[in-house]
Automatic annotation (TrEMBL):
Pathway the protein contributes to: Amino-acid biosynthesis; L-arginine biosynthesis; N(2)-acetyl-L-ornithine from L-glutamate: step 4/4
Binding, N(2)-acetyl-L-ornithine: R138, S277
Cofactor names: pyridoxal 5'-phosphate
InterPro entries: Ac/SucOrn_transaminase_bac (IPR017652), AcOrn/SuccOrn_fam (IPR004636), Aminotrans_3 (IPR005814), Aminotrans_3_PPA_site (IPR049704), Class-III_PLP-dep_AT (IPR050103), PyrdxlP-dep_Trfase (IPR015424), PyrdxlP-dep_Trfase_major (IPR015421), PyrdxlP-dep_Trfase_small (IPR015422)
Gene: argD
Name this polypeptide is given: Acetylornithine aminotransferase
Species whose genome carries this gene: Litoribacillus peritrichatus
Keywords: Amino-acid biosynthesis, Aminotransferase, Arginine biosynthesis, Cytoplasm, Pyridoxal phosphate, Transferase
Lineage: Bacteria, Pseudomonadati, Pseudomonadota, Gammaproteobacteria, Oceanospirillales
Subcellular location: Cytoplasm
Keyword Transferase: yes
Keyword Heme: no
Length: 407
């Protein structure tokens, strides 16, 4: 028989999973092996965009599994063609490249940016600008682009010619950008870095700087895409159009799939043989993602994301008035970060653990921020019940942090 201790016996120790092991889920609820029921405000880290076991996704994967799973990229397939066509119709993009994850999508974007710069301008135009506290994946290239040393320490030598500016500080970009810059990569809302939205002026400024220096502007929308912010992609909320956009997580609704979207001109640099993915664009993943895109691109659903955002914010504000635990509550759509006050810094994981005891799943975004990324169609009743459980968990958390009374 296997249990949580089996993980320590047989799995590489790069994760430290919770004690509970989920057995099944439905909508915004999960059950563990002891049949305890949990409200899920984590969404598999912004992946389960339509909750667990959405009936249309279950039906789609069952039907496609009886037709075709994999054919390799020696051939194309209808689900991939349909999904790519819909993504180009719904976004700025004209071309799509499919892969399996966000890291792979960002890897492709960064490679394309350098290849395009070399083809069109100069082989010396290789500099990439990213931002402190950013996160772009775990490949060696993407972890180097990410602005958090804890993810790259010990893996050197790292890919070079990558600089890091300060998020929401245009002057810090102006100080380092040059005609040797091939790309600027940015999350419209930093996820792992603390759920920090970019200002519209900042993104507009980046767009202008990239135009000035013939650099591609890459929007990493792995976490902010697929309806998470109340638009299909966050760039549509900001009205700032990138040259390359990466997407994964929620676009598969839980099935592994990623994509890089770009223009015809830039895509032309990835000629046959320059990049690829064995499983990328497989019929099974694309069939599921097509249904996800059909559902989440509905205007009423996207508007409801914003309505649910306001419901969360109102409830979190009420909790904060009671317990005075959060310094800031921020985010966009159903990607919400609650930054702990300085006296609670470093203890976001403790709050997550206590929430679990109250049958609630939440996330952290660094040591000081609690993060919520629930299903985009979470029922209001589950929001209300989840917030009540969070209130109880925070009440216990604050009580446990209080200094003992002097005798």
């Amino acid at each position: 028989m296997t249990n949580r201790s089996t993980f320590d016996d047989v799995m590489v120790p790069n994760y430290s999973p919770l004690a509970m092991i989920p057995s099944h889920g439905k909508g915004s609820r999960l059950w563990d092996e002891d049949d305890n029921e949990y409200i899920d405000l984590a969404g598999g880290i912004a992946v389960s965009s339509l909750g667990h076991c959405h009936p249309k996704l279950v039906q789609t994967i069952q039907q496609q599994s009886e037709k075709l799973w994999h054919v390799s990229n020696v051939m194309t397939n209808q689900p991939a063609l349909r999904l790519a066509k819909k993504l180009t119709e719904l976004t700025f993009a004209e071309k799509v490249y499919f892969c399996n994850s966000g890291a792979e999508a960002n890897e492709a974007a960064l490679k394309l940016a350098r290849k395009y710069a070399s083809d069109k301008f100069s082989s010396e135009k290789t500099q990439i600008i990213s931002f402190s506290e950013s996160f772009h994946g775990r490949t060696l290239f993407t972890v180097s682009a990410g602005g958090q040393a804890k993810y790259s320490d010990g893996f050197g030598p790292l890919p070079g010619d990558i600089l890091h500016a300060t998020y929401n500080d245009l002057a810090s970009v102006e100080a380092i950008i040059s005609d040797k810059t091939c790309a600027v990569i940015i999350e419209p809302v930093q996820g792992e870095g603390g759920v920090t939205p970019a200002s519209k002026d900042f993104l507009n400024g980046l767009r202008a700087l990239c135009n000035q220096h013939n650099a591609t502007l890459i929007f990493d929308e792995i976490q902010t895409g697929a309806g998470r912010t109340g638009e299909l992609y966050a760039y549509q909320r900001y009205d700032v159009v990138p040259d390359i956009l990466t997407t994964a997580k929620g676009i598969g609704g839980g099935f592994p799939i990623g994509a890089m979207l770009t223009t015809t001109d830039i895509a032309a640099s990835l000629v046959v043989g320059t990049h690829g993915s064995t499983y990328g664009g497989n019929p099974l993943g694309c069939a599921v993602a097509e249904v996800v895109v059909d559902i989440i691109s509905d205007r009423q659903l996207l508007d409801n994301v914003q309505a649910k955002h306001l419901k969360f914010i109102d409830g979190l504000d009420h909790i904060n008035r009671r317990h005075k635990i959060f310094k800031d509550i921020r985010g966009m759509g159903l990607l919400i970060g609650c930054e702990l006050k300085p006296e609670y810094h470093g203890k976001a994981k403790d709050l997550l653990t206590l929430a679990l005891k109250h049958k609630l799943l939440v996330l952290v975004a660094g040591p000081n921020v609690m993060r919520l990324a629930p299903s985009l169609i979470i029922p209001d009743s589950d929001i209300e019940q989840g917030l009540m459980s969070l209130d109880k968990a925070i009440e216990q958390f604050v009580a446990e942090q209080a200094p003992a009374e002097q005798e």
